[in-house]
Amino acid sequence: MFAKLVAVSLLTLASSQLMAAECKTTIDSTDQMTFSTKAIEIDKSCKTFTVELTHSGTSQKSVMGHNWVLSKEADMQPIATDGLTAGIDKNYLKEGDERVIAHTKIIGAGEKDSVTFDVSKLNAAEKYGFFCSFPGHISMMKGTVTLK
Ligand SMILES: [Cu+2]
């Protein structure tokens, strides 16, 4: 009887923690070639995670466009390099690049886009990062993604 009560209250606790986890975040990008955050933490209890990208600048996307791309940390620069020639219509990403875990489209001032991905694609032992693949932006526009 006691054990059953404990099990029930543990279940209740677990589900309230699930509900408490924030499984989405909003990131702003600017005319100064910056993201509003350098680090994203994803709670392991999230089944999916959503990133909404906004652009608070005044430049159109052909001039100062930004996207949000998620990959393993080691794949970030190679993905950006391979995306250089893809063009803005392909979001400066090589078509079918399997190293890309998730990405938004390239947006300009006043626009927004969001992407939702399965958290099960991430492994706690691996290092992940995010960046903008617009040519030249990865040097300033990047950060870490941690599963915790
Ligand atoms: Cu950018």
Strands side by side in the biggest sheet: 2-8-7-4-5
Provide the helix percentage: 10-25%
Note the overall shape: globular
Mean pLDDT: 91
Poorly predicted residue ranges: none
What is the element string, with H for helices and E for strands?
A: HEEEHEHEEEE
Strand content: 25-35%
Quick one: biggest sheet? 5 strands, mixed
Number of strands: 8
Ions, cofactors, ligands: which are bound?
copper (II) ion
Q: How many H/I helices?
A: 3
The end-to-end span amounts to: 34 Å
Assembly state here? single chain
Which value, in Å, is the CA radius of gyration? 18 Å
List the helices and strands and how they pair.
Elements (H helix, E strand, L loop, with lengths): L1 H19 L3 E6 L9 E4 L5 E8 L5 H4 L4 E4 L3 H8 L18 E2 L8 E7 L9 E4 L10 E6 L1
Parallel strand pairs: 1-3, 2-8
Antiparallel strand pairs: 3-6, 4-5, 4-7, 7-8
The structure holds copper (II) ion (CU).
The site of copper (II) ion (CU) has 5 residues, from loops.
Kindly describe this structure:
With 148 residues, this protein is α/β, with parallel strands linked by helices. Helices cover 21% and strands 28% of the residues. The strands form 2 sheets. Strands 2-8-7-4-5 form a 5-stranded mixed beta sheet, with no helix packed on it. Copper (II) ion binds at residues 66, 132, 134, 137, 141.
